[in-house]
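Hi R.,

Here are the chain sequences for the assembly we discussed:
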Amino acid sequence: QQPVQSPQAVILREGEDAVINCSSSKALYSVHWYRQKHGEAPVFLMILLKGGEQKGHEKISASFNEKKQQSSLYLTASQLSYSGTYFCGTVSPGDSGAGSYQLTFGKGTKLSVIP
Amino acid sequence: DAGVTQSPTHLIKTRGQQVTLRCSPKSGHDTVSWYQQALGQGPQFIFQYYEEEERQRGNFPDRFSGHQFPNYSSELNVNALLLGDSALYLCASSMGQHNSPLHFGNGTRLTVT
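And here is the predicted structure of the full complex:
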């Protein structure tokens, strides 16, 4: 099942902060975050793993509540380059045996940063 | 170091036809996942290939099939095209573990008329 992202869209002025939320109804291995600019491919930002380990971007932070299957992406002191659509991808066990998993993306949050 | 490459970049097909899309993964990656992205939507998981086998499949009909070759490159085949199959098809490669980032290609824009 597709994770639910909120808000659907947000407009920020340069320097403002934003939080994007992602919620899943399934038990998760991990949560990925990607940013997609118009006409381009999604680009990896961050992975959050069970146990609190994070891998990713220096200027963007995130949290992962394993018990609630929720993740939040924190964008601080936003820059014009932060504009784009942000997708969370939730990783849950697959149904094809050991090692299988499925990464399912939400519908995205469109972030616009204006001068 | 070449990233993920997809071909062709654009394709126009007629309803009922068949199409094959191709993907070369990033060097060092052994896993390829395919996604369908409709306009304004998030990527929808089609399937994932690892060691030349389909390891996991999303909620797509059997008209969608794939293949992975020994060099880890992959193909996505869609038979009996429908108008609703018009979308951007994204290929993503990774190291195969769930904690491995996906690296996306620029996609193939398929239009079915």
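DSSP finds no helices and eleven strands in chain B. Residues 16 and 80 of chain B are 4 Å apart (CA to CA).

Let me know if anything looks off.

Best,
T.
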